[in-house]
Amino acid sequence: MSFTDSAATRGSDDNRTEPVEAGGVLIGGREFVVIAGPCAIESEAQLLNTARAVADHGASLLRGGLFKLRTDPRSFQGLGLVGIDIAKAVRAATGLGLCAEITDPRHIEPLSDVVDIFQVGARNMHNYALLKELGQQSRPVLLKRGLSALIDEWLLAAEYLKSGGNSRIILCERGIRTFERRTRNTLDLSAVAYVKRHTSFPVLVDPSHGTGVPELMAPLCRAAAAVGADGLLIEVHIDPETARSDGEQALSAAGFAQAMAELRPILFALGRPLSGPPANRRSR
Amino acid sequence: MSFTDSAATRGSDDNRTEPVEAGGVLIGGREFVVIAGPCAIESEAQLLNTARAVADHGASLLRGGLFKLRTDPRSFQGLGLVGIDIAKAVRAATGLGLCAEITDPRHIEPLSDVVDIFQVGARNMHNYALLKELGQQSRPVLLKRGLSALIDEWLLAAEYLKSGGNSRIILCERGIRTFERRTRNTLDLSAVAYVKRHTSFPVLVDPSHGTGVPELMAPLCRAAAAVGADGLLIEVHIDPETARSDGEQALSAAGFAQAMAELRPILFALGRPLSGPPANRRSR
Amino acid sequence: MSFTDSAATRGSDDNRTEPVEAGGVLIGGREFVVIAGPCAIESEAQLLNTARAVADHGASLLRGGLFKLRTDPRSFQGLGLVGIDIAKAVRAATGLGLCAEITDPRHIEPLSDVVDIFQVGARNMHNYALLKELGQQSRPVLLKRGLSALIDEWLLAAEYLKSGGNSRIILCERGIRTFERRTRNTLDLSAVAYVKRHTSFPVLVDPSHGTGVPELMAPLCRAAAAVGADGLLIEVHIDPETARSDGEQALSAAGFAQAMAELRPILFALGRPLSGPPANRRSR
Amino acid sequence: MSFTDSAATRGSDDNRTEPVEAGGVLIGGREFVVIAGPCAIESEAQLLNTARAVADHGASLLRGGLFKLRTDPRSFQGLGLVGIDIAKAVRAATGLGLCAEITDPRHIEPLSDVVDIFQVGARNMHNYALLKELGQQSRPVLLKRGLSALIDEWLLAAEYLKSGGNSRIILCERGIRTFERRTRNTLDLSAVAYVKRHTSFPVLVDPSHGTGVPELMAPLCRAAAAVGADGLLIEVHIDPETARSDGEQALSAAGFAQAMAELRPILFALGRPLSGPPANRRSR
């Protein structure tokens, strides 16, 4: 059986995507892109060690929040602007671009130095004041689907960005809220197939929030690739048990390595190599 | 890259399944099983032509309903017992086993001659009177997840079958009801990963009801295989536009062929050959 | 302020209802009807004492299941046909008609002697084999809305009964399944207002399953009356802590009395007297 | 039957509420408060005429948005700061306090002159950056429940306000997102009963967004009062057919008058007079 004709495999649903360049990586092109890292930046050691671990196993961009949207005001809210220096240092040391959540239009300017992709979280998908402002700057925006957003509403939220002039938009499916309780959310991979077919946006899948269950991550990473996603956004923590937020859903470095190992044959079958970290890309 | 060690790929989530034999096919073993055919049996020509088309492209069992659960009492309700002779003739001509829905405990006996797998539809998952009776006979039962059934309720419905003495149970995820409107239901592939990991039942995925959208079928067949499902249940109609029920979600023969073509590289990557029709199996 | 002109109050939504007579009580007429009793019939003493308690406080019909649809096969499934003699004795002693769930078409005949209203539970709303058979007999049928049934599907289920020839149909809203976890289901009182306006069926509300929380029962009984329901279906157990099913959501006799006391001023405002037990009706 | 002992009626669920004063009106006290007006302020004539109409029929505060959160960026987004002068003029002419939505922390200061209650819409319930800022100013905040927010998340959002120092919080149930399609959302009156019993916040109900269907408004206003809500938030437009946003769900002046007429007997039964406009209050 030949895998060379990737068009045969991907032809039915993935021929219109317009790739977005971010942090030296092309998202939505032939290569499959994995963004991985901690929910929140906690310290330089935590971020640097996690960054190195995820790069070793195939991630090409780093995730890590400075500002966290937490349901409970007494929960850890992120390091805030204090974390910028840590992020800068780790970015310089590893060469990995940073994807970080933005929660307030007034943070766009201070974060622009250090953030390669502004992430709009599910809880802010309907925060149109924020979207309008992000539409007026030029960094790529990763737009997560809202907790209970219709696909149509998600695409209209992307219009808020586009109508401001920014068309560097990456969509991210992260699970919707349903009655099911064994998983934190219900990951909607049909929505990924739908937006791949009906729009030209690159689409990532976040199985960490999508399921909230580390043991389900590897099969859902495989499924996300197979359904046609352009990449993954995964929470990895060097020591999940001490994580200050979302530790229960983060993969350990070993868990991430296992998920990536199981993902590679699927990507090979799809004719989509894993993008990998910048250093690897240079040497290829 | 080597694909020979399928355990590396499937090891994280699929090592406990106890296969179920049905219609000469092993469901839940190494081979991936596709059950395909029309929503409802309409005529001998329709069933025979569809059966041949799906067998040509990799199906190893035939689906086709004699009794349909239709929301509207004025809709076509299936041929009923009249369809038994048609089913017998097509089964004999093609050698394909039949998976057909059962909606009334009083039909178990007349259908036992011709049905290889009794399908309990989503709307009857909570029909415990029916489940109890199916638990007391020996044919395999394909148990679909209810429209809004918790995974735990689905597994307890399986207990109704088991506690009667029948452990030839195949689970089938077919989408849950959510707010999203672009798809008929929301196919919950996380639930497949969950039950693969926590039970020993074979698990199929029905992307036809799961999405209701033919154009999304190929990517979701690929994703279902990648997430660890043991097979698929797909609606195929030789002429979807004339179908008397669910025609809008059925694949044409060509659409089915395309979905199977896109599925094969994924199955190869997973180390799971497509089971194929009985004739092919004999010659292998 | 005058309350005599009930048309002013109810005029906007309640002028088409065709009442259904059941167990000597008119449901859907000017009087508001409360059906109360245990989830399951456990013993003659339990049923008789509960029946007397609910009649004392305003119920005009008794509920009590012989066959229970339980999610778990190891749960108490009801006394079955053994309970018929108990039901007959209590019906004779109190003069209260009985509303009991039917879960199998083969039980219609043995239950016809003792059941005044056949209740189709939420899990069987889509059990069209059962509905067809109930359509061919003449007892009133209380049709609960399915766990995740669209209003339109609920009304089409009623069509299954009507198309068989039985138009003695009473609808019952009992909560739909949503993501919320503080209540067992989400009671959809908008659906009650909708079906009152768009159909001629009497409509009851079941706040016991609708919320699953005894402390919320009194306010929701008031709201159900205010929104235009024709009555209530309430689980009351003489000793909820010893109940063999659903005890956690049953009201005690004192809780029921309190809910009825809070309901009466609302009913007075609406110009709808509480129907009350047969004895009271005779003496009125 | 005596209605004087309102404690008998309300005693089971409403004895802890701490009222919040806003625009000269006490919300959460014995009087029932109706806030009514257009979705968006469109012109001085539109706002003034609507304000007079709603005051005539029992509203005691005016609603009207300057900034609208619209799903589609091409929809009318509100007059913005330009509308402030209109709002001031109408407030002066009618004596009605204004409840207006706030969508951006940077608008708090310019709106503080003219807004008596800052409304946080459902789509911003999770916008913690906005909530934190609103917690640091002293105007009352009406906090709507998010589209798919758990009751617990709604109460934690209120904690964001409280932890900043502002305890003038009014909750507002406005329907949650479910599968049902006959209504825009599913109004969750059980949630109202729950928060009345478990918190000390005043709670309003918004049947306009809760159902999206004008013909269901009157019954749901009655039900909201009966379940224990402290008031209503209703969209009224002097000419719904020309409304620039949400016109399909707004009541006309006549529809509002009818809903209020049907509400009054229920309020009388509950022992809760309608608060009414400031002029009426002075003369009482």
**CA radius of gyration of chain A:** 17 Å
The computed structural class of chain A is alpha/beta
Poorly predicted regions of chain A are 1-12
Oligomer kind:
homotetramer
Sequence of strands across the biggest β-sheet of chain A = 3-4-5-6-7-8-9-10
Average pLDDT confidence of chain A is 91
Number of helices of chain A: 11
Q: Which bin fits the share of residues in helices of chain A?
A: 25-40%
Distance between the termini of chain A: 26 Å
Instruction: Report on the biggest sheet of chain A.
Output: 8 strands, parallel, barrel
Q: Hey, which two chains have the biggest interface?
A: A-B, 52 and 52 residues
Name some characteristics of this structure:
homotetramer, 284 residues, alpha/beta, 11 helices, two-stranded antiparallel sheet, disordered N terminus, 8-stranded parallel beta barrel
Provide a descriptive summary of the structure in words.
Chain A contains eleven helices and ten strands. Chain A is α/β, with parallel strands linked by helices. In chain A, helix 7 links the parallel strand 8 (169-173) and strand 9. In chain A, helix 2 (44-56) packs parallel to helix 3, helix 5 (128-135) crosses helix 6 (151-164) and helix 9 (217-227) packs parallel to helix 10 (253-270). Chain A is globular. Chain A starts with 5 loop residues before the first helix and ends with a helix. Chains A and B meet through helix 7, helix 9 and helix 10 of A and helix 7, helix 9 and helix 10 of B.
